[in-house]
Amino acid sequence: MEIVLDKRAVRQIRLSAQDAVEEGDIETLREDILEAFTEEQVEEIERRLDSGDFFEFLTDMLDEWSGDDVDELFELMDTQLGDMGIDVKFDKKAAAAIVEPGEEDADEDKDDADDYEEDDDLDDEDDDDTEEEEEDADDEP
User: Fold this and answer.
1) Average pLDDT value over all residues in the chain
2) What are the φ/ψ torsions at residue 127 (nearest 5 degrees)?
């Protein structure tokens, strides 16, 4: 079986995991992971589990997680589900689209740089006009 988590789900799990790393609270993370899967996917996972309880599976997985590295959580999820014959795919665009606080996305920087170049041209013209007005003001008695 293959499960593909869309970018919204991956983003929510990643943000929730980052919160769990910072605050140490895994309750919300467990619920967000559970919500990332459809009811049909949860039912199929539960059929493959010895305990038959996906919530318990998530609890055990999160207990095994070090709580330090978000990527480790995704690897652990991939491994644990893979052991049950479930190939989980995480939307690659989502992982690339997530920007850590204080960081910028390279593509956004490029687009922003193009915008600034155009703005700089306009600003230069405005600066020339301002300089000329200041010179004219200095020439007046």
Assistant:
1) 76
2) -65, -40
